[in-house]
Amino acid sequence: MAVEEIHAEMVSSVWKVLVEPGTEVAVGDTLVILESMKMEIPVLTERAGTVRELHVTEGEVLQEGDLIATVE
């Protein structure tokens, strides 16, 4: 089964985590909301499946390319 890795696209902080491992998600569901330069940036999944791993916590600062989650 294919796995989607979701990475941060920019330096940002994790404002809100909306899922946990085991959560079933559909295409376009928001996994986390990042904050950068006072803007909220939803991070969406591009495939339906189950969140296998969540690599971030609220308040954490991410660098571009950091792994946020995997969906299987």
From TrEMBL:
SUPFAM superfamilies with a match to the protein in the record: Single hybrid motif
One Pfam family it belongs to: Biotin_lipoyl
CDD domains in the cross-refs: biotinyl_domain
The Lipoyl-binding domain, residue ranges: 1-72
Keywords, alphabetical: Biotin
Keyword DNA-binding belongs to the record: no
PANTHER family in the record: OXALOACETATE DECARBOXYLASE ALPHA CHAIN
UniProt name for this protein: Biotin carboxyl carrier protein
Lineage of source species: Bacteria, Bacillati, Actinomycetota, Actinomycetes, Geodermatophilales
